[in-house]
C-alpha cells in the first residue's frame, strides 16, 4: 500500500516551487525556515525562523497568505451585526462563527457554531460540518480583550485555517484581529490579505500595529530594535485585564 507522506521536508530552489505536502511542509530557504500548506481555498507560508547568514544556493522564502477567492468584507460585517444582536453589552457572552466556501458555487457563507457560551469562552459544535470545513473560524471577545488568549492557542492547534477575534463589538470602535494557523504555527495578518475590501466599521488591529511599528522604525533609524521591544512590552500590559485565561 502506498501511504502518502503527510509532512514533507525540503529545500526551496525556486520562489514559485509548489506546495505539495498533503498536511504541511517544512522548507529551508535562502533566508530562513518556513512552514507551508495548501488547501482548496488557500495557500499559506509562515516564517519559523530567519537566518542571520543567508544561503545563496537556495531561493528566498516569504511569509504569505493567498486565498483562491478573497472573502467578501460583507461577511465580516454581517457576523459583527449578528454578534451584536445576540448579546448585550451589560450581559456579554462570547459567540463563535465559521466562514466556509461552498464547493459547488464557490460562494462564501457564514454560520454561528456555538454549542455553549459564557462571558469569557465559547465551545464549538464540533460535529457541525461548517465548523469542520471552515476556512475562517472567528469568535467574539469580552470588551478590552484584544489578543488571542492561551486558550485560543490550545483550541486552534492542529488545524490549517484562518482564525479571528472580534472585540469591543458594542462600542463605537469594534475591532478585528486575524491570523493564519498552520498546525500550531500562527502568524497574525491584516484583514486585507483575506478580504476583498476593508471591512466597514471595524478597526484592523494587526494593520494598526504594523503601521505603528513602521513609524517607530522610521523615526528611530538604527536604534529601532531596542525600542520595538519596549513597544511590544507596552502593548502586552494593555492586556493585563485579560480574563479569558482564568
Ligand atoms: Zn478567544
Structural features, described:
With 246 residues, this protein is α+β, with helices and mostly antiparallel strands. It has 2 domains: 7-67, no CATH class; 73-211, Cytidine Deaminase, domain 2, CATH 3.40.140. The chain is 22% helix and 31% strand. It contains 5 helices and 14 strands. The protein has helices at 73-86, 129-133, 150-155, 205-220, 224-237, and strands at residues 7-11, 24-28, 32-39, 42-50, 64-67, 96-101, 108-112, 114-117, 122-124, 136-140, 160-167, 175-182, 185-189, 203-204. Strands 6, 7, 10, 11, 12, 13 and 14 form a 7-stranded mixed beta sheet that branches. Strands 1-2-3-4-5 form a 5-stranded mixed beta sheet, with no helix packed on it. Helix 4 (205-220) runs antiparallel to helix 5. The longest helix has 16 residues, at 205-220. The protein is globular and about 60 Å long. Residues 139, 141, 149, 152, 165, 244 line the site of zinc ion.
The gist of it:
The protein is α+β, with helices and mostly antiparallel strands and 246 residues long.
Keywords:
246 residues; alpha+beta; Cytidine Deaminase, domain 2; seven-stranded mixed sheet; five-stranded mixed sheet; globular; binds zinc ion
Q: What are the distinct ligands in this entry?
A: zinc ion
Chain oligomer state: single chain
How large a portion of the residues is in β-strands, by DSSP E? 25-35%
Can you tell me the number of structural domains? 2
User: What's the main sheet like?
Assistant: 7 strands, mixed
User: Any idea what the radius of gyration is?
Assistant: 19 Å
**Count of beta strands:** 14
What is CATH's topology name of the largest domain? Cytidine Deaminase, domain 2
Structural class by SSE content: alpha+beta
Q: Helix and strand string, N-terminal first?
A: EEEEEHEEEEHEHEEEEHH
Unreliable segments of 5+ consecutive residues: 236-246
Distance between the termini: 48 Å
Can you give the mean pLDDT?
90
* Helix coverage percent: 10-25%
Classified by CATH, the class of the largest domain is Alpha Beta
- Looking at this structure, what is the CATH superfamily of the largest domain? Cytidine Deaminase, domain 2
Our count of helices gives 5
Any idea what the shape is? globular
Amino acid at each position: 500500500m502506498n501511504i502518502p507522506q503527510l509532512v514533507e521536508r525540503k529545500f526551496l530552489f525556486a520562489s514559485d516551487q509548489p506546495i505539495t505536502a498533503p498536511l504541511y511542509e517544512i522548507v529551508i530557504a535562502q533566508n530562513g525556515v518556513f512552514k507551508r500548506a495548501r488547501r482548496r481555498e488557500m495557500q499559506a507560508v509562515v516564517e519559523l525562523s530567519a537566518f542571520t547568514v543567508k544561503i545563496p544556493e537556495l531561493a528566498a522564502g516569504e511569509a504569505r497568505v493567498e486565498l483562491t477567492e478573497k472573502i467578501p468584507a460583507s461577511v465580516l460585517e454581517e457576523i459583527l451585526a449578528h454578534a451584536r444582536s445576540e448579546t448585550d453589552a451589560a450581559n456579554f457572552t462570547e459567540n463563535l462563527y465559521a466562514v466556509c466556501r461552498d464547493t459547488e458555487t464557490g460562494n462564501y457563507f457564514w454560520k454561528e457554531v456555538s454549542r455553549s457560551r459564557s462571558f469569557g469562552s465559547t465551545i464549538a459544535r464540533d460535529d457541525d460540518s461548517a465548523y469542520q470545513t471552515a476556512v475562517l473560524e472567528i469568535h467574539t471577545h469580552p470588551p478590552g480583550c484584544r489578543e488571542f488568549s492561551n486558550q485560543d492557542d490550545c483550541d486552534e492547534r492542529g488545524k490549517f485555517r484562518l482564525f479571528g477575534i472580534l472585540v469591543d463589538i458594542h462600542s463605537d470602535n469594534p475591532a478585528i484581529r486575524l491570523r493564519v494557523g498552520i498546525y500550531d504555527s500562527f502568524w497574525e495578518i491584516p484583514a486585507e490579505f483575506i478580504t476583498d475590501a476593508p471591512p466597514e466599521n471595524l478597526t484592523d488591529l494587526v494593520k494598526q500595529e504594523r503601521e505603528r511599528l513602521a513609524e517607530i522604525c522610521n523615526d528611530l533609524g538604527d536604534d529601532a530594535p531596542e525600542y520595538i521591544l519596549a513597544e511590544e512590552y507596552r502593548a502586552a500590559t494593555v492586556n493585563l485585564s485579560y480574563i479569558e485565561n482564568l
